[in-house]
Amino acid sequence: MSKIYVTGLGPGAAEQMTVQAKKVLEQCSVIIGYTVYIDLIRKEYPDKIFLSTPMRKEADRCRMAFEEAKKGRDVAMVCSGDAGVYGMAGLICEIGRDEPDVEIEIVPGITAATGGAAVLGAPLMHDFAVISLSDLLTPWEKIEKRLIAAAKADFVICLYNPSSKKRADYLARACDIIMEYRKRETVCGTVRNIGRDGETCEILSLESLHDKQVDMFTTVFIGNSNTMELNGRMVTPRGYKDV
Amino acid sequence: MSKIYVTGLGPGAAEQMTVQAKKVLEQCSVIIGYTVYIDLIRKEYPDKIFLSTPMRKEADRCRMAFEEAKKGRDVAMVCSGDAGVYGMAGLICEIGRDEPDVEIEIVPGITAATGGAAVLGAPLMHDFAVISLSDLLTPWEKIEKRLIAAAKADFVICLYNPSSKKRADYLARACDIIMEYRKRETVCGTVRNIGRDGETCEILSLESLHDKQVDMFTTVFIGNSNTMELNGRMVTPRGYKDV
């Protein structure tokens, strides 16, 4: 039976790929993904069949994977980061319900939360919440409710999709909500282009984050009440030192 | 200047290790970690110096890393999963504040949340909260507050350290709290020994999870109000199908 491997490539699609993801790319004859990620790996695997659809055509891309698998080919369905965090894994499982002849395996990858945290220092050493600010598939009211809950309960918060052309002020709106429950001096961080050329990061206060313009290649971290800046790193202490 | 690489080995310390983590292990002359993880990799790298301390001796282990680095050796400080999620990255950064001659790099790994999610299907396709039930370093009241916040705001919840010998009833207590805000039928999952021999998983209701005895090698997932069981997989839909 041929198989679809829903594979996370990690943030940069290179050194942060797992050994298992690399094997999947080597062994599958077809690699399918969003154009940008396909372009990152195409030159490494000149003998593969590469298929792609633009953004917003996620369901078409998944159906394409099943069509290829039904031709008897093993398929690597690739995503940036982890396929299971706002990625393609869920949709492949949903469509796969009606495709009993195709086996599915999810191959995890480094997601932006942990990849970005490593660039900033150690912001996720304590309980954390991952929230996407994209309201394309989620009503803003639900996003707002989750921001309030996470802020009140002093979670470290990691924001995915903090901005886009149509949603230029969403990060500022999120910061306004969080500032109702947390200090303006709360230590925050941003990382752009994690694991890629031109990777940059910045540590700043929640108040300054409010006024910062970020893009869709940026992941945002808001510390908890104990998060500190230490020698240019964002660090949430876990308390081992006191044990 | 010699360097400490705080390195996550992924859940199973083998195929789910990143290419970068593998390079770090190959290039460092000293590998330091908790005994169990050191034993998982020792035979692969016979020429290395392996150093270890038992559990609860985290600060000693970190200081050991700085001592070795100051002798001019590059050190891989290894953790299971990701070093930045309840791992050693924070403590190394804290101690590193007083060690200006040693460079620190955090090398991310697959954490149990994403590694376990891949085994179960796709539970983390929407906003999620990661909470540790260990009250060794966190007061239980704070953990409880976070459980309530995450349950009320309909986050998918991933529980680390769900149990230990001394805390046999903590998962049941957490389920009781969550059931005040979420249906008893909420789809949940457990994964044990992620990425290792004897990996097992189970999908069950929140009510059944309450009565299940898990151990410290288990990661627990509590779905949001839309999470489903589909062909034996735990899947949180993201809504692409409706676009």
Ends distance of chain A: 53 Å
Which chains make the largest contact?
A-B, 77 and 77 residues
The value of Rg of chain A in angstroms is 19 Å
Beta-strand proportion of chain A? 25-35%
Largest sheet of chain A: 5 strands, parallel
Total helical elements of chain A: 8
Q: Name the shape of chain A in a single word.
A: elongated
How much is the average pLDDT of chain A? 93
Oligomeric state as shown: homodimer
In short:
Two copies of one chain form a homodimer. With 243 residues, chain A is of the alpha/beta class.
Keyphrases for this structure?
homodimer; 243 residues; alpha/beta; five-stranded parallel β-sheet; five-stranded mixed β-sheet; 25% strand; elongated
Task: Describe this entry's structure for a reader.
2 copies of one chain form a homodimer. Chain A has helices at 19-27, 35-41, 58-70, 89-96, 112-120, 140-152, 170-179, 206-210; strands at 3-8, 30-34, 49-53, 75-79, 103-107, 121-122, 128-132, 156-160, 187-192, 200-205, 218-222, 228-230, 233-235. Chain A contains 8 helices and 13 strands. A 5-stranded parallel beta sheet of chain A has the order 3-2-4-1-5, with helices on both faces. In chain A, helix 3 (58-70) crosses helix 4 and helix 6 (140-152) runs parallel beside helix 7. In chain A, 30% of the residues lie in helices and 25% in strands. Chain A is of the alpha/beta class. Chain A starts with a strand and ends in an 8-residue tail after the last strand. In chain A, 52% of the residues are buried. The model of chain A has no long low-confidence stretch (mean pLDDT 93). In chain A, strand 7, helix 6 (140-152) and strand 8 (156-160) form a beta-alpha-beta unit. The interface between A and B is large, with 77 and 77 residues.
